[in-house]
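ok trying this again, last paste got cut off
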Amino acid sequence: MSKNTIRNKELSEEVQEEMSESVEEKVEQTQDFLRSAFSTKRLSSYLVARNLPFAAFVALLGLLYISNRHLAERTVRSIDQLGRDVKELSWDYKSLSAELMKLTTQTEIAKRADTLGLKERTEPPIKIEVVKKRD
């Protein structure tokens, strides 16, 4: 890499003067800009009144943004709650279904019928045939 040769040399008075003048000009330009941007002429009541509809529009957009955010959060909470309810109801359904399957087995029905005084048949059913007489 090459070295910076300007740093090694002493600057002449003319170059130093030019640099200081350019720096002073830039400082003056910056100060002028800031003075003009915040002067009372630019921030007059006319300017504020002229931009009032825009400020109201921006405020309205801000309110809409905030209300939309609240609505979205409420919807997400509602979806989460409904999801939890669905899981709980699914667990209830599965436990009741399993209990019903257990209660409808032949042995469970026989036990419950025994308490009522009914007994299970040990012999197969007999088919009864009715013969119709023709008149």
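PB: full thing came through this time. The first helix runs from residue 5 to 8.
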